[in-house]
């Protein structure tokens, strides 16, 4: 069927060429016939061949109607985002005024996703025929064309005329943003004024837009527009907002005499009942043009907060309440210093004023139980109270400092803070500081999810965290928002100018491609593809590792496979660094099993260079058929891991790539000696020769914890009585921990329990009693109790550390071949001719008076590991010793 279809299309192209069919001969039915052919081609799976045929035909017959249509629709159906053929085709029929066909072709384009060209052309068709459908087309157009302002404004005017104010306002806002970007001052002024009339209470919107106007069109224009908003809030006597607006205007021009005069009037309105208002205005020189306006405002606001009933904070006396202000003297009631007086000047310089709902004030005037209950039951209230207490800029560290331990315990904070983080993220009453993602602010009016995510995006400095926010915006908010366009353009910008292809360029490409697939209108018109970008990457492995998001990593690997002919070889090179199961599965499923087997063989044979690869194959491929076919002996795999263990220990000791080697070392230890006990299970099922071979390798790993060797040795002896260990196995296994008897371990645990559960609580009561006696400087009871506390803490810490290091000695493993833990050794003193007998145990059991010595003591260490019949000479504390070992026997336990 496919061959006949291809031939049929070839015949149609030839007939079109030979007959030189005119445009007037075409009708919509002709294109519907071509659609039928495309459907048949899809079923026959020969779309690519037919498209290639049409593309070749267009190379010499560029205006072929049939070839343009089939090639264009084929490209869109494969989501190639290449609409050039259909644009050329539609332009031909536009030039020949064939509007019905133009409309049909535009609709066909839109079947595969939104297109600015198709929508504009369709709108022109409807405009000529005065068709009401034009408004639907306009709405679709402005959603994908972020530069279209005039149509956006016309839509706003239509909705307003129809009395639908909510969509009208949204379209006016969109139009305003777009006129700002186009720097069309008159249009900006017109829509701004109209929005001030329609939605004057949306002050956060005007704040945001004025910042954008200032950045793009200049401070003067922004200040002029904010005057309109100011007049509304002044008329409503919302003094706080009016003052904020005037501060913005003065921030653009601190010499603005009108704004300076207005702010004085607003301060008079806000503090109309203040007893010292006129005096503070005069003292701050707010009315004097020679004084820096912001210095004058700061001084005035500092003074005006000093009035009867207001709260202040002193670093020594804490929170106090102003009882009265008379002339230049204030009287303050502190908790432990009531009726304290000072000059106003001194108060202004030494006291911090606090609002009535400041957390420090509430802590001072509320009962602890009331504050505790409120904080626990109303987390949102607690967050708002604390954040506002820090000038509406606060991170969670400061929140914790205010609550723990004065109100909440550390354990209560853990669950409380988890709920608080969720509230801060989801509650529209909270936002973030635009310059610091860690600082939270409280909003007077709820913030939209779009603006909340946008603010977090602006404050976030981490590149990959910004990707997370962009994708979150795409899922949870309106992607046709102006905020989304600005966020998207940040990453699109990485693809327009770069000197080197790194992880940020690749990540931007992957993100842009993903979003364009979902929203085709976002296509920034890139002039290169993934293969071209990849060819400029210096180290593909490092780029993969640097991509912090797992989804981006998968996309990176998928694009390598989709767009690079030699992807199997690239995958093989990537694997030792990437260690991705996706790579192995893709190679196996696509028939490249032999490459995977060669890679696995390489990793085991060259484990020094590919140690992580060998570990990965051991852990993940045991049950895979392709791995079983390799027939790598299990013993060889285990021996490879033992060698890797030895290598990492030596490199750690030599301070070579310590962090990476520690990570690999932990992996191997967990495999060999973890809960599955793979090494032990294999050894216990093996013959004597295999046991000897593997255990010898384990014993040669110098820095392996001897307790692991001891445990393995014991298991071997349990299953193979009389098994002979050679070389270093005859030596005492001295753990880097502490070898102890089970009896002494239990005693030490009881001793620690006594300290923690009995002696420490008793000592705490002693300290509490001593504190109640008053002056600590002359309090002997307090000093004694504190000294006792230090001794108890030190003892408990030391005991806990020793118990953690303790390795219980197994008496059944005692060996009398050499002096070792658990042996009784008889020594002949060659200087006196007398025999001396000692029992070798650990420091916990040491009792020199009864001839029990620690293997860790200088004397014990000197005789340790020596055989019967050996002569020993050694020096301890400048004293010479000369012994012969007469006998070694096992101690009884």
TrEMBL record:
Keywords, ordered alphabetically: DNA-binding, Elongation factor, Protein biosynthesis, Transcription, Transcription regulation
GO MF annotation, one: RNA polymerase binding
Chain ranges of the Transcription elongation factor GreA/GreB C-terminal domain: 818-888
Family matches, as InterPro entries: GreA/GreB_C_sf, TF_GreA/GreB_CS, TPR-like_helical_dom_sf, Tscrpt_elong_fac_GreA, Tscrpt_elong_fac_GreA/B, Tscrpt_elong_fac_GreA/B_C, Tscrpt_elong_fac_GreA/B_fam, Tscrpt_elong_fac_GreA/B_N
One GO BP annotation of this record: regulation of DNA-templated transcription elongation
Pfam families cross-referenced by the UniProt entry: GreA_GreB (PF01272), GreA_GreB_N (PF03449)
Residue ranges of domain Transcription elongation factor GreA/GreB N-terminal in the record: 739-807
Assigned protein family: Belongs to the GreA/GreB family.
Known function: Necessary for efficient RNA polymerase transcription elongation past template-encoded arresting sites. The arresting sites in DNA have the property of trapping a certain fraction of elongating RNA polymerases that pass through, resulting in locked ternary complexes. Cleavage of the nascent transcript by cleavage factors such as GreA or GreB allows the resumption of elongation from the new 3'terminus. GreA releases sequences of 2 to 3 nucleotides.
Descriptive protein name: Transcription elongation factor GreA
Organism per entry: Teretinema zuelzerae
């Amino acid at each position: 069927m496919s061959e006949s279809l291809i031939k049929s299309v070839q015949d149609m192209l030839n007939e079109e060429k030979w007959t030189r069919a005119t445009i007037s001969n075409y009708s919509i039915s002709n294109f519907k016939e071509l659609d039928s052919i495309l459907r048949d081609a899809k079923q026959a799976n020969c779309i690519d061949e037919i498209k290639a045929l049409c593309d070749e035909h267009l190379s010499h017959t560029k205006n072929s109607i049939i070839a343009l249509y089939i090639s264009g629709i084929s490209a869109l159906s494969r989501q190639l985002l290449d609409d050039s053929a259909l644009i050329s085709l539609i332009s031909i029929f536009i030039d020949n005024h064939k509007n019905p066909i133009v409309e049909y072709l535009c609709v066909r384009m839109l079947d595969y996703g939104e297109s600015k060209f198709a929508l504009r052309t369709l709108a022109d068709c409807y405009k000529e025929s005065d068709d009401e459908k034009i408004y639907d087309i306009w709405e679709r157009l402005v959603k994908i064309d972020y530069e279209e302002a005039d149509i956006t404004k016309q839509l706003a005017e239509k909705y307003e005329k129809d009395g639908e104010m909510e969509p009208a306002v949204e379209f006016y806002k969109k139009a305003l943003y777009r006129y700002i970007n186009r720097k069309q001052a008159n249009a900006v002024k017109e829509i701004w004024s109209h929005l001030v009339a329609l939605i004057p209470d949306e002050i956060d919107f005007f704040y945001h837009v004025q910042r954008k106007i200032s950045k793009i069109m200049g401070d003067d224009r922004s200040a002029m527009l904010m005057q309109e908003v100011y007049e509304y809030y002044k008329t409503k006597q919302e003094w706080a907002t009016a003052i904020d607006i005037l501060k913005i205007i003065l921030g653009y021009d601190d010499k603005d005499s009108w704004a300076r005069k207005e702010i004085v009037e607003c301060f008079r309105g806000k503090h109309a009942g203040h007893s010292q208002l006129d005096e503070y205005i005069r003292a701050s020189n707010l009315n004097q043009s020679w004084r820096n306006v912001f210095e004058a405002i700061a001084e005035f606001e500092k003074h005006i907060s000093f009035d009867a009933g207001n709260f202040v904070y002193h670093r020594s006396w804490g929170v106090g309440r102003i009882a009265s202000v008379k002339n230049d003297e204030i009287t303050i009631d502190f908790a432990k210093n009531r009726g304290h007086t000072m000059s106003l000047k001194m108060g202004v310089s030494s006291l911090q004023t606090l609002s009535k709902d400041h957390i420090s004030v509430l802590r001072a005037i509320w009962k602890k139980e009331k504050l505790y209950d409120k904080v626990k039951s109303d987390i949102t209230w607690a967050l708002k109270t604390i954040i506002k207490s820090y000038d509406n800029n606060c991170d969670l560290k400061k929140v914790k400092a205010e609550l723990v331990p004065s109100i909440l315990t550390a354990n209560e904070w853990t669950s409380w803070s988890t709920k608080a983080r969720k509230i801060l993220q989801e509650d529209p009453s909270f936002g973030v500081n635009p310059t610091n993602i860690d600082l939270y602010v409280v909003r007077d009016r709820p913030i939209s999810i779009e603006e909340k995510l946008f603010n977090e995006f602006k404050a976030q400095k981490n590149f990959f965290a910004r990707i997370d926010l962009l994708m979150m915006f795409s899922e949870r908010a309106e992607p046709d928002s102006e905020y989304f366009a600005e966020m998207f353009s940040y990453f699109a910008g990485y693809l327009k100018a770069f000197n080197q292809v790194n992880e940020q360029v690749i990540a931007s490409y992957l993100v842009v491609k993903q979003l364009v697939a979902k929203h085709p209108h976002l296509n920034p018109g890139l002039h290169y593809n993934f293969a071209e970008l990849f060819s400029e990457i210096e180290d593909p492995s490092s780029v993969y590792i640097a991509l912090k998001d797992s989804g981006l990593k998968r996309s990176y690997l998928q694009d390598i496979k989709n767009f690079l002919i030699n992807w199997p070889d690239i995958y093989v090179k990537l694997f030792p660094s990437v260690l991705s199961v996706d790579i192995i599965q893709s190679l196996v499923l696509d028939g490249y099993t032999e490459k995977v087997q060669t890679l696995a063989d390489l990793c085991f044979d060259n484990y020094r260079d590919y140690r992580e690869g060998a570990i990965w194959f051991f852990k993940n491929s045991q049950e895979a058929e392709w791995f079983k076919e390799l027939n790598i002996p299990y013993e060889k795999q285990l021996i490879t891991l033992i060698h890797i263990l030895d290598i990492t220990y030596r490199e750690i000791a030599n301070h070579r790539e310590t962090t990476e080697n520690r990570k690999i070392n932990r992996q191997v230890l967990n495999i060999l000696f973890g809960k599955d006990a793979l090494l032990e299970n294999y050894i216990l099922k093996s013959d004597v020769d295999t046991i000897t071979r593997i255990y010898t390798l384990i014993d040669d790993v110098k820095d392996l914890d001897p307790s692991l060797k001891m445990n393995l040795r014991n298991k071997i002896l349990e299953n193979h009585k009389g098994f002979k260990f050679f070389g270093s196995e005859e030596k005492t296994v001295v753990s880097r921990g502490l070898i102890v008897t089970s009896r002494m371990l239990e005693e030490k645990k009881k001793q620690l329990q006594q300290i923690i559960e009995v002696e420490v609580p008793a000592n705490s009561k002693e300290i509490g009693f001593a504190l109640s006696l008053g002056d600590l400087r002359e309090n002997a009871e307090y000093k004694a109790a504190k000294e006792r506390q230090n001794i108890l803490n030190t003892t408990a810490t030391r005991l806990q550390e020793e118990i953690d290091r303790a390795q219980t000695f197994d008496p059944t493993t005692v060996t009398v071949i050499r002096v070792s833990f658990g042996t009784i050794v008889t020594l002949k003193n060659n200087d006196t001719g007398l025999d001396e007998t000692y029992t070798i145990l650990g420091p916990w059991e040491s009792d020199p008076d009864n001839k029990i010595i620690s293997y860790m003591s200088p004397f014990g260490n000197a005789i340790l590991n020596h055989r019967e019949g050996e002569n020993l000479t050694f020096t301890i504390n400048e004293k010479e010793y000369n012994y012969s070992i007469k006998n070694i026997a096992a101690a009884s336990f």
